[in-house]
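Incident log, structure service

09:12 report received: a user says their structure output differs between two submissions of the same chain.
09:20 pulled the input from the user's history:
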Amino acid sequence: MIAIENLSKRFRTAGGRDHLALSDINLDLKRGEFVSIIGPSGCGKSTLLYIVGGFIAASQGSVRIEGKPVTGPGPDRGPVFQEFALFAWKTVLQNVAYGLRLQRKSKVEAEARARGLLRMVGLEGYANFYPKELSGGMKQRVAIARTLAYDPQILLMDEPFGALDAHVRTHLQRDLLRIWEDHRKTVMFVTHSVEEAVYLSDRIVVMASHPGRIAREITIELDRPRERAELMFNRRYQEYVTQIEGMIDAFEVSAA
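09:34 re-ran on a clean worker, output below:
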């Protein structure tokens, strides 16, 4: 589904220095696979996601979606980034329905799907609110619902739950897994939380920094469907979390 080959990214810093953010990334994602990207701060996780999304260009190498080179953003990839990027002048319902209207769905059909997604993310009573009237966590839930509304084949998610409180974060993780299990979208998920990555993923890509590179790929062999309460007592789950946290800690120490 996604083929990343020999990908590198260089930036010119404000001081005029050349900075190698990503070096020789090779990674394939199968159709319907849930892959998390994790690693220390500054390892290029988000940069990699932006390149796959077509928002910035690679300095070297390529990204292909079903064999076609990525040359820019497209409706096959649904981004949910750290920024909410909501339209301030549209209501919550209008924000979620926006992509559907662009796809020429009728107003009735678009709003019906939007209302269903708002129920899913716990904002059913906020359809007629404006973004300025919402908390940060609520804005992110609207952004997630808006991306899901137009049904992209691939979800590109950059810390989508990072701004949410623990209860809401757990709820949305569970909802995301349910959506993934129902529709088997291909998900590329960036997170700083090892527990979140192990809970959600089929495979975890652990990155090291200076420059950003893939250090390890770990297949998560835990049965699905997964229940967080049960996993907390699962020895294999605990071993994955301990192993990956130890790797990231080692990378951070070596980079210091």
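09:41 both user submissions now match this output. Likely a transient worker issue. Closing.
09:42 reviewer note: The mean pLDDT is 90. Residues 235-255 form the longest helix (21 residues).
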